[in-house]
Amino acid sequence: MKNNIIAACLFLFTLAFQTQTFAQESQLLTKNKSFLGAIAKMKSYKAIYQLDSDDPKIIAKAFRNINNALKDPRLQGKLEIELIAFSGGTEAFKKSNSQYEAALKDLIEKGVHVVQCLNTLEERKIAKSELYDFLAYVPSGNGELILRASEGWVIVKP
To answer: pLDDT tens-digit profile of 114-126?
Structure first.
């Protein structure tokens, strides 16, 4: 009989603990479900996307990330974006990689500044004529990131 009482007490304790845990989890799920994310309180936002890889998956991810940011309703009409390519990222800007031309032109049409580092061209002996004609240029990709960061731009590395 003593074992039955102990078993009953353990059962009741376990049941009470599980009920309390379920109630806590339910409150957390409800609280999380009502979360709406950050609110765009500022008049403008600026982001510079760093493209320094020739990996097609990374290049596609950069383009997708930029387009997703441009579609975010919280940022509509408030977002300025720059895409800076240097190092391996320069491959996405070469005419010989024509699979990227339409996507890059689309970004420019949406107001994105598409920019190439001149240091990379010099170091890799790449002529501007090998790149798309619609690009802008800066002396240094890293310098651009440093300057933009000091101006409050968010640096995004896909």
So the answer is: 999 999 999 999 9
Q: Could you tell me which residues come within 8 angstroms of residue 84 by beta carbon, excluding any fewer than 6 positions away?
A: 48, 49, 50, 51, 115, 116, 117, 138, 141, 144, 145
Contact 153, 45 (CB under 8 A): no
Instruction: Give the predicted TM-score (pTM) of the model.
Output: 0.81
For residues 103 and 148, give the distance between their C-alpha atoms in angstroms, rounded to a whole number.
Answer: 24
- 63 and 99 Cβ atoms separated by less than 8 Å: no
Q: What is the tally of structural domains in the chain? A: 1
Q: Has residue 28 been placed in a domain?
A: no
Residue 99 lies in domain? 45-156
User: Collapsing DSSP states into helix, strand and coil, what is residue 115?
Assistant: strand
